[in-house]
Structures are given as C-alpha cells and as structure tokens.
Amino acid sequence: MGIIARQSLKGTIVNYIGAFIGFISTMFIVTRFLSSEEIGLTRVLFEAATFIGTFAQLGITSSAIRFFPSFKSKDGNNHGFFFYMMMVPLVGCLIFLPFFGLLQDVICDYFKENSSLFVDYYDWLIPLMFFVVYLGVFETYANLLMRIVIPKVIREIVIRLLLIVVYLLYAFHVINLTGFVTGYVAVYGVAMLCNFFYVSKIGSVTLKHDSSFINKDLRKDILKYTLFLMIGVIGGSITSRLDIFMVSAELGLNYAGIYSIAFYMVAIIDIPSRSITAISSPVAADALRAGEFERANDLYKKVALHQLLIGGFIFLILWINIDNIFAIIPQGDIYKEGKWVVFYIGLSRLIIMFLGFGYTLISFSKYYYWGLYFTFFITLITILTNQWLIPILGISGAAIATLLTCVISHAVQQWLVFVKVKGNPYTKNTFKLILLLILLYGVNCLLPQVDNPWFDGIYRTLIICLMGGIAVYFSRLSEEITNLVNQVLKIKVK
Q: Which DSSP letter does residue 269 get?
C-alpha cells in the first residue's frame, strides 16, 4: 500500500497515543471530578456543534476529496483551491446563523425539562461550531496533500492534553462551570489555529483564486455533487448523533453522561479507520475518476480487512475486560449501567469499519446521487428505532437502535456498492478472521477469574493478544502485517 501504509501506520500510532491519554483523562479524571450531568453537557455541546457544522460546511470536506485532483497544479497553488475551502464554510456559517436564532426556542423547549444545563449554555454552540468546522477544513486540506500525521497529533493529543488542563482547573475550583465551558470551547479554537499554521507550512494557503479555471461544466458538476453529498452527510450526521440528543432530552444529561462514557470506551475501536480512511480516500477518488474499478475494489478489500482485523481485536480485548474496567474507574457502579451500550455500539462500529469504505466508493463515483435516497432511508430508520426503544430500554435501547440502523443501512449500502461499482470487501481471509475472533473469545471464557481487576485484565489481555498475534502471523491473514513483522524482525522470506 506504499504511502497509504506508512501514513496510516504513523497516524494510527498517534491515534493510540491520543487514545491512551484520552483513556486516562476520561476514566480517571473526568469520571472522578465531573458529575455524569456535566459529562453529558460537554458531550451534547460538542455533538450539537458538530451536527450544526455539518450544515455549515456545505459538504466541502467531502467534495474537496473528489475534486482536488482536477485542481492540482505544478506550482502548488492548485488554482486557488484553498480559497474555495475557506469561503464555502464561511458562507455556510452565515447562512445558518439566522436559523440558529429562529430555532432556539424550539430546541430549548425540547431539552429544558430534563437537560436545563444544556439550555443555559446554548449560545456557546456558535463559537464551538466555527472552531470545529474549520478544524475539519484544515485537516481535510492536509489529507489532500497526503499529510495526516500532524493534524492527528493536534486532534488526538494536543486537544486532549489541553482538555485535561481545563478539567483540572475546574476540579480544583480555579474556574467555575461557566469558565469550564469557556475553556472547553477555547481548546478547539487553539487546535484550529494550530492546524492552520501547519497547512500554511506544507501547502499554498493563499486566498487568491483562479476563477477562469472553473468552467461552466466543472461548476455545474461541483454544485450538483456537493448538493447531493451534503444531504447525505447531513443524514449521516443525524443518524450518528440522534441517540445522544434523544437520551439527553428524554432521560436527562446524567444518562447522557453515562452513555457518553460507554461511547468513549467504544470509540477506541475505530481509531485505525480514521487514519486508513483519511489516506485511502484520495487514492479511491483518483481510481474511480479514471474508471479503474478493479483498483478501487482491491483497495476496498484491503481497507475492509485491515479495519476489521484491528477493530475486531480491540473490541474483543475491550469486551473481555469490561467488568474489570468498571471495577477500576471512579464511580464505576454508576457508569456500569452503560455496559451493554458498549456491546451494541461496539458491534455497530465493527460493521461500519468493515463496510464503511463502500460508501466512500459510492460518494466518489458517478452514482453519488444515490446518497440522497440512502440518507432518507437511514434517517427514517434511526428516528423510528430510537423513538421505539429509548422509552422501553433507556440507554441500552438507544444502543440497540444504533445497531439495528447500522445493520439495515449497511446491508442496503453494500448491495448498492456491489451493483454500481462492483465493490466487494469479502475475501476468504475475512471469514478466517471472524472465526479466529470467535475462537479467541471462547478461550477467554475458559480462563479462570481473578479477584484483582488489574491483574485479571492484564493476564487475559496478554494471553489473548499473544495467541491472536501468533495466529494472524502464521496464517498470513494480512500480507502487509506479516511483511511488516518480518521487516521489524529482519526475517528473510524466500
């Protein structure tokens, strides 16, 4: 995979360093010094800002990947492509602001009964949205230049370290709750500026643009693609965030906090996908633009296998240690209510990791408009399943709704990918991997329970990782991983 493998490996290492920092922060600082309601507040604020930002971006972070190859130039200015990446979200933010004010009463009425704290800090969504939008814009620009590591350092490490400072300032009463929210928002502003300074070093950030380059046909193609894709992205944003919004509104911010802690545990599963997808997407866009469906499909198979391999092992280690984790973290008895949220959301994450790149292929192909129909379909399923299951099963119902939506939507999506772009992620190694994960879980069930949660977790993890690593290497489930191990160990294979 060449540069994809190198950049993905570096990005994944950064992601896991950030995940380790985030784990320590969330499990031992946040759960100790913040109430579940305050945790829920930060989660809902961030997700709401990200959701609003989806509208404000006007699809630029996705359409940029598709059309950047058309703008590339030898002088590095790329016909003023950076100008368009800056201006489109700005226009989107200006368009959205009136709606933000008009919908304030409706939104606040929905949340005020069970989540009044969110209503108190509603206005902070505007600056947070702006920071999140342009943080994503600068990340995307760096990805287009095949540089993902530093932006990931900023997102995964710098942000988390700065947030720890904010948490501790609040914990030791240096700042009050308003100061805490201010600091929380400011962290993303600092991260946005760091990303801007980085992209200014590696590429052209001039606001000069070549208006003559965009002819009538190209303009029409961009507008048409962006419109359809934006609707799809908005739909995806709804489906991925509706659960936390409904949990907070229907059950309260305290349950949103419990749900968030469980969700954070699961988030570690798809860390590899962020690097692999980020660096693979431009390659897929180039292949599909050239009509090279076979090359795109080969990439799909490799991406799907490696994401399932890494994500599957992480989920397995997480689930076999779930009781140990709740026994270790502060106020674990409270957050243990989210145990099955971890399981159901974890399964949905694995499905997304394995099949998610298929949507990338569709969105970069001439069949991107199918995203419109797909969006309406999954949005409807998401709303109906959450409305049905949350009142009955609480936060577990929200997680089950997410899993059901994921299974149904990705089944339809994969059918579309297969029919339209001949994409198929399955290989014989896929089924070998699934069987291996099941067998390893069976081995875990045979291991004796140890009273000390630290010792129990460590020895289980070591045994399962050792057995799994040996099995992956000698079965050659992944040629890339086997070759990498051989290079590290300096083993010559004849």
A: G
